[in-house]
Amino acid sequence: MTATIIDGKAFAAKVRAQVADHVSKIKAERGEAPGLAVVLVGEDPASQVYVRNKGTQTVEVGMKSIEYKLDASTPQNELVALIHKLNADPEVHGILVQLPLPGHLNSDLVINTIDPAKDVDGFHISNVGLLGTGQKSMVPCTPLGCLMMLRDHHGSLAGMNAVVVGRSNIVGKPMAQLLLGDSCTVTIAHSKTKDLGAVCRGADILVAAVGRPEMVTGEWVKPGATVIDVGINRIERDGKTKLVGDVHFESAAKVAGAITPVPGGVGPMTIACLLANTLTAYCRAKGLPEPKGLTA
Ligand code: GUN
Predict the structure, then answer these.
(1) What's the pLDDT tens digit per position in 27-64?
(2) Residue 124 C-alpha to ligand 1 middle, in angstroms?
(3) Ligand 1 atom at minimum distance from 170 CA
């Protein structure tokens, strides 16, 4: 078997086009645009790239992008004061504080200072609780992107066995909640799971989010399964830097029914979903109907 490649780059472009279409209608009817504030503290090179891409794509879909670049030594009270200011700003509908934060800052406290209604990352403890209890929430962008691709490929996910490898707050745990919400039978596996290969082989849907390059091989994939690779790992091979996922693509693609590549799979969906979440936050704030197909 050779797997169908799930093209996240094309899917993300479709999501952005849908968002842009909504935003242009909002502008025409209401004379305003949703606004996303992104806060970067320090100069982590990967974070700088993410933040630049977020800003560019926000503007491309017609939204307002507000960027704050703060010194790495910014004290916690200053960052918290900025978030309070953004919470109160009627032109800001989404707030994202880029992680990781420098070590002297308390990430949990900072994230939990964001107004949950503007928490487009879905990291605030209120949104985590709402998602866990099946209530309307802001949903973390990467798992939301994975869910959109799975729904697009399968239609209903009801009754499928889903295995999520990885238990992070950003991907693994919310991914499991979303799959449960779509009536999958969900297993969360991790580095201490006994016979991880056997657990993975039981999956109709296998989501790899462990941060270990090419850990999931074809031997761990059930024939015909759908494999979603959340990993983005830079490795050195043949003297070159290469981007690989948590899945060994070549071997897994021989067994799977469908698979996301790295790059060009889950990655592009994350920012597309951030834009979708900002639009959703705007619509909720204004009491407008939520955009269809762009939320969980
Ligand atoms: N750093 C890496 N990914 C993310 C993300 O999705 N949100 C935030 N806030 N920081 C990140």
Answers:
(1) 999 999 999 999 999 999 999 999 999 999 999 999 99
(2) 13
(3) 6
Q: Is the pLDDT of residue 1 over 90?
A: no
**Adjacent-strand bridge partners of 234:** 243
Residue type, 192: K
> Phi, psi at residue 231, to the nearest 5°?
-70, 145
Spatial separation of the C-alpha atoms in residues 181 and 197, rounded to whole Å: 25
Q: For the chain, list the domains and their CATH numbers.
A: 30-120 (3.40.50.10860), 141-267 (3.40.50.720)
Burial 195-223 (b: 16+ CB within 10 A, else e): ebeebbbebbbbbbbbeebbbbbbebbbe
pLDDT tens figures, 145-203:
999 999 999 999 999 999 999 999 999 999 999 999 999 999 999 989 999 999 999 99
Dist. CA 88–CA 93, nearest whole Å:
10
**Dihedral sign for Cα atoms in the order 160, 161, 164, 170:** positive
Give the Cα separation of 45 and 104 in Å (integer). 19
The reported pTM is: 0.97
Q: Choose the catalytic residue: 115, 119, 121, 246.
A: 121
Whether the per-residue pLDDT at 11 is higher than 90: the answer is: yes
